[in-house]
């Protein structure tokens, strides 16, 4: 087994965007978020603490190689709530080999088309208190809020009076990979296309920095419709309980 020390080494070991997204844990000086990465035979894995609110181990490769690698590294990782994460078929194969439980299945998406045209009616939001106030009403269980370690900047759409109606965030960035999260629209304005405006703006802006990715609940039909219309491709991923 070879330890990978930098995000560049991780990117050289695999082109899997999900695993490379975890490479941000190799770039931080924050001990609570710093991680480790390894390669062994055909498997690559990265431990990314507090990545999108979970201590994740993202992995790729053949099921046998991944099972062997995880069997070696998982017992050495701190914490009791580590979540191995991989495409669903691979995750289930590894779970069977290591006798792990399935925690959840959801969607991992990446922008697989030309970035959508930026919408002029969206903008970067400087006042994060406005964002927090909207999220408290529009999405009180949002996995990303202002002040979170992964929140980089917020975009939004306003009405004619300047009131913030819809938001989304640039968050949890890794070298060459950006992550879109925190999308929410005021309840009385849902269904009017405002989330599409915000996500179009974010996808266009973030594509300047690299691949654009996001996570979505598999049963969130409205969000899936927006993301697919913008050119995002869907892959089912499954988190395990280590």
Automatic annotation (TrEMBL):
Ranges of residues in domain N-acetyltransferase: 80-242
Origin superkingdom: Bacteria
GO molecular function: acyltransferase activity, transferring groups other than amino-acyl groups
Any Pfam family hit: FR47
InterPro entries named in the record: Acyl_CoA_acyltransferase, GCN5-like_dom, GNAT_dom
SUPFAM superfamilies: Acyl-CoA N-acyltransferases (Nat)
Name this protein carries in UniProt: GNAT family N-acetyltransferase
Species of origin: Saccharopolyspora montiporae
């Amino acid at each position: 087994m070879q330890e990978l020390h930098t995000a560049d080494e991780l990117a050289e070991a695999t082109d899997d965007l999900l695993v490379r997204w975890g490479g941000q844990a190799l770039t931080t000086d924050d001990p609570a978020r710093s991680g480790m990465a390894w390669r062994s035979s055909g498997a690559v894995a990265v431990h990314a603490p507090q990545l999108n609110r979970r201590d994740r181990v993202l992995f790729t490769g053949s099921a046998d190689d991944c099972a062997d690698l995880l069997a070696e590294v998982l017992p050495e990782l701190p914490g009791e709530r580590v979540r191995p994460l991989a495409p669903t078929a691979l995750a289930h194969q590894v779970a069977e080999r290591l006798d792990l439980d399935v925690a959840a299945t959801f969607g991992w998406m990446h922008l697989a088309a030309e970035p959508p045209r930026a919408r002029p009616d969206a903008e970067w939001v400087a006042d994060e208190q406005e964002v927090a106030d909207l999220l408290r009403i529009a999405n009180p269980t949002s996995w990303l809020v202002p002040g979170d370690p992964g929140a980089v900047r917020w975009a939004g759409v306003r009405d004619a009076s300047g009131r913030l109606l819809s938001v989304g965030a640039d968050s949890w960035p890794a070298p060459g990979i950006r992550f879109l999260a925190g999308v929410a629209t005021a309840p009385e304005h849902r269904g009017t296309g405002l989330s599409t405006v915000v996500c179009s703006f974010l996808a266009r802006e973030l594509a300047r920095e690299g691949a654009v990715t996001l996570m979505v609940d598999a049963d969130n039909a409205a969000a899936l419709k927006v993301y697919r219309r913008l050119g995002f491709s869907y892959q089912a991923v499954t988190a395990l309980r280590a």
